[in-house]
Specification:
Helix content is about 40%, strand content about 15%. With about 300 residues, it is of the alpha/beta class. It is globular and about 50 Å long.
C-alpha cells in the first residue's frame, strides 16, 4: 500500500472521486505523473470479498492515497444501525487504512407499520435535540467500530422534514446543529460547498454566495477536515436544482472555494463528478484548477 503522506504536496492536497469509467486510466498513472494526491471510493462498491473487486482495490491503494466515503449507514435514522453494513464498512476501513473516512448527515430508514423501509436516498434530518442525540449515538457506534473519527458531510435538502411530521421541527440552525454534533460525537466535518450552494439556490437567497459564506465563516477551523467541490445539471426536477454531480465544478462553487480555502488552509479538497462522467483528463484539469486556487490563497 502507498504509505506516502496525504499532504505530499505541502501547500495543497487535492483528490478526485474515482469511478468505474476511470479505473484503467487512473491506474496507468501514479502520484508522480498526475496532480492527484488521493482518490475517493464509495465504500459500498467494495464490500464484496475477494475476486476482481478486491484486486482492483489493492491496485488503487498501490497508486494513490485513499478516501473511503460511505453512503448507506443513515446516521440520522431513528433506528439501530444496520449491523451487516456497519461490519462491512468497518472491515473495509481497517483493511485499507484510508487517510479519510466520511459519511452523510442524513436518514435513510424508517419504521412504518412495524416494517423497516429504506428510502434508497439521502434524506434530511430535523435539527433538534432528539435528532442530535440519535445521530451522536449512531456516529459514536461507527467510530467505535472503525477505531477512528468520522468526517460528517452536510447534505442537500429538497424537503422540509417538519412539513411531514410536526414533531420534527427544527429548534436550531444547521450550523448550530453541526457544531454541537461534532463536539458531542468527537467527529469532524466534510464541508460540501456544492451542497450549500444548491440549498441556497433552492431557497432563493438573493445572494447565494453570501449566504453560503455566512455559514462557512461560523465554522471553527479545527472542525473542517475535508472540502468537496462539484457541479450540478441545469435542468430542474420538480422545481429544484438537484445535487447530481453531473457537471464540472460550477462557477459559484469556485467562487466560494476561493474564500473558503482561506478559512481552512491545507484542508484536503476533493473534486466530485458522479454522473455524465467526463474523460479522466478533465478530472485532472479540475484538480489542477483547485490546486492553483488553493496555492493562490496562501
Amino acid at each position: 500500500m502507498n504509505t506516502s503522506s496525504l499532504s505530499s504536496k505541502p501547500d495543497a492536497c487535492i483528490g478526485v472521486g474515482l469511478r468505474h469509467l476511470h479505473y484503467d486510466e487512473a491506474l496507468a498513472h501514479n502520484q508522480s505523473q498526475t496532480p492527484i494526491d488521493f482518490v475517493e471510493i464509495h465504500a459500498e462498491n467494495f464490500f464484496a470479498k475477494g475476486g476482481i473487486t478486491q484486486a482492483l482495490l489493492s491496485d488503487v491503494c498501490e497508486h494513490y492515497q485513499l478516501s473511503v466515503h460511505g453512503t448507506s449507514l443513515g446516521l440520522g435514522s431513528n433506528l439501530p444501525l444496520p449491523q451487516q453494513t456497519l461490519s462491512q464498512f468497518a472491515e473495509l476501513v481497517k483493511s485499507t487504512q484510508p487517510k479519510l473516512v466520511s459519511e452523510h448527515l442524513c436518514f435513510n430508514r424508517a419504521m412504518i407499520d412495524d416494517k423497516i423501509y429504506h428510502s434508497g436516498d439521502l434524506l434530511p434530518i430535523a435539527f433538534n435535540e432528539a435528532s442530535l442525540a440519535q445521530t451522536v449515538s449512531n456516529i459514536q457506534q461507527v467510530q467505535e467500530a472503525i477505531g477512528r473519527a468520522l468526517l460528517i458531510e452536510n447534505l442537500s435538502a429538497y424537503l422540509d422534514v417538519s412539513e411531514m411530521d410536526p414533531y420534527s421541527r427544527d429548534s436550531m440552525t444547521e450550523t448550530e446543529f453541526l457544531l454541537r454534533l461534532c463536539d458531542a460525537a468527537g467527529c469532524t466535518m466534510l464541508l460540501d460547498l456544492n451542497n450549500l450552494i444548491v440549498n441556497a439556490l433552492n431557497q432563493k437567497h438573493a445572494d447565494p454566495i453570501e449566504a453560503v459564506m455566512r455559514h462557512v465563516k461560523q465554522l471553527p477551523q479545527h472542525l473542517v477536515g475535508e472540502i468537496h467541490l462539484a457541479g450540478f445539471s441545469e435542468q430542474k426536477v420538480a422545481g429544484f436544482i438537484v445535487d447530481d454531480h453531473g457537471q464540472a465544478v460550477s462557477q459559484q462553487c469556485w467562487e466560494v472555494y476561493k474564500q473558503t480555502i482561506k478559512c481552512f488552509p491545507s484542508v484536503p479538497t476533493l473534486i466530485e463528478w458522479d454522473t455524465n462522467l467526463p474523460p479522466w483528463a478533465t478530472l485532472v484539469e479540475q484538480a489542477n484548477k483547485a490546486r492553483d486556487i488553493a496555492l493562490q490563497q496562501k
